[in-house]
Write a structure and sequence with these properties.
Blueprint (H helix, E strand, L loop, with lengths): L8 E4 L2 E4 H5 L9 H13 L5 E5 L9 E5 H15 L6 E4 L6 H13 L2 E4 L15 E4 L1 H10 L9 E4 L6 H9 L3 E8 L4 E7 L8 E2 L4 E4 L4 E6 L3 E14 L2 E7 L4 E3 L2 E3 L1 H8 L7 E8 L3 E9 L23 E5 L12 H10 L7
Parallel strand pairs: 1-6, 5-6, 7-8, 8-9, 19-20
Antiparallel strand pairs: 1-2, 3-4, 9-10, 10-11, 12-13, 13-14, 14-15, 16-17, 18-19
Helix pairs in contact: 2-4, 3-4
């Protein structure tokens, strides 16, 4: 018996597609590319194959491919369905590209949960005046754009699942001020989407693991996780966390860590302080420094001209945390899904400098 055969079909864009129709190559005639890609993925779920391949976004390195048994997809989907109590009465909107794990898992949840999944072409402003879904997975960028440009269309009965990047302090404040139901997800392609969730409220985001997930902290502060059936051996992540009684708080990524004169700087914590002052895309990254070895630099996407007086009034953890150099770059290097490739952007800029690191 095929692993997903018991689920029989899926409802996409209001139309039920049985497994037999999928096998015959049935397509929704008016569907866009993202819907066609979703149908192809559902066909893979119902196929004879025992495992499926997924590819990372490549935001922190070259894209990598991983193979998972179909039982792992089912296990992950069931955990999320249970947490959010998504059933056949629900309707969800998917405005994410089908190339990546977040969208693939949303389609898997629709197959198993039996709810109606409306698939949109990826957009920064996916809400529609005549459609009020119960559930929407979005990126932090999409959430910010929705708040800025579509706040009048937000239904407070809708739950937003935010993934693909951190929820910074400004975004968290905007969400809570508008009393929006939102959860931040914690996971990666290697864990088949999220394995922990945090309710977005006025408090620090504390991530709580899904049932069956085990976590521990390495001696260097990095998070390790195991989820038998999906990740059978301990997986050491690049995420620096702080454990609390009821979960863990994400601090930043170890591969972005800056060692400036012996002081460890977590770029994401510096960025959180700057977010309320800068409305342009930006990030903090370490660059070579003769006396400190490495210093924190602020990279801003756009033309020079933004007033940075606020750098002098921000309360910094130390003098080393205040960016010691400001770099304007016309356009950051990004992945297809829009994530900034920090290291590649910095390397590209350094190649244009007459004396890199001098």
């Amino acid at each position: 018996m095929k692993h997903f055969e018991k689920y029989r079909g899926v409802t996409l864009n209001g139309k039920y597609l049985s497994a037999s129709k999928l096998e015959s190559g049935h397509l929704l005639r008016s569907a866009g590319p993202n819907t066609h890609a979703a149908i192809r993925f559902v066909s893979e779920l119902f196929s004879e194959k025992d495992e499926l391949f997924v590819t990372t976004s490549g935001s922190t390195g070259s894209p990598k491919e991983y193979a998972f048994p179909k039982s792992a997809f089912e296990q992950s989907a069931l955990a999320t369905l249970s947490f959010f109590q998504l059933n056949s009465e629900a309707t969800a909107l998917l405005p994410l590209p089908m190339e990546y794990i977040a969208a693939k898992m949303m389609v898997t949840r629709a197959v198993i949960g039996g709810f109606n999944l409306i698939i949109a072409e990826p957009s920064s402003t996916p809400l529609k005046a005549d459609f009020q879904p119960d559930f929407i997975p979005v990126t932090p960028f999409q959430m910010r754009e929705i708040l800025a440009r579509q706040s009048a269309l937000i239904n407070h009965q809708t739950t937003f699942l935010i993934g693909g990047g951190p929820v910074d302090e400004k975004l968290k404040t905007d969400i809570t001020q508008q009393q929006i139901s939102a959860y931040a997800s914690f996971g990666m392609t290697e864990t088949l989407s999220h394995f922990a969730l945090a309710h977005v409220d006025n408090h620090p985001l504390v991530f709580k693991t899904l049932p069956g997930v085990e976590v521990k902290q390495s001696e260097f502060g990095a998070l390790s996780m195991k989820w038998p059936g999906i990740v059978d051996e301990w997986l050491v992540t690049n995420d620096i966390v702080e454990f609390r009684d009821d979960g863990f708080v994400w601090l930043g990524r170890s591969d972005f860590l800056i060692n400036s004169g012996g002081i460890k700087i977590i770029p994401e914590q510096v960025e959180s302080k700057l977010r309320k002052h800068l409305d342009l895309p930006f990030f903090i990254h370490g660059v070579p420094d003769e006396s400190l070895g490495e210093k924190a630099a602020l990279f801003i996407e756009g033309e020079k001209g933004k007033h940075l007086d606020f750098l002098d009034i921000v309360t910094w953890q130390s003098k080393y945390h205040r960016p010691k150099e400001v770099v304007y770059i016309p356009q950051f290097i990004r992945t297809e899904s829009g994530k900034i490739k920090r290291a590649e952007t910095v390397e590209s800029w350094q190649k244009t400098q007459p004396n890199p690191g001098g």
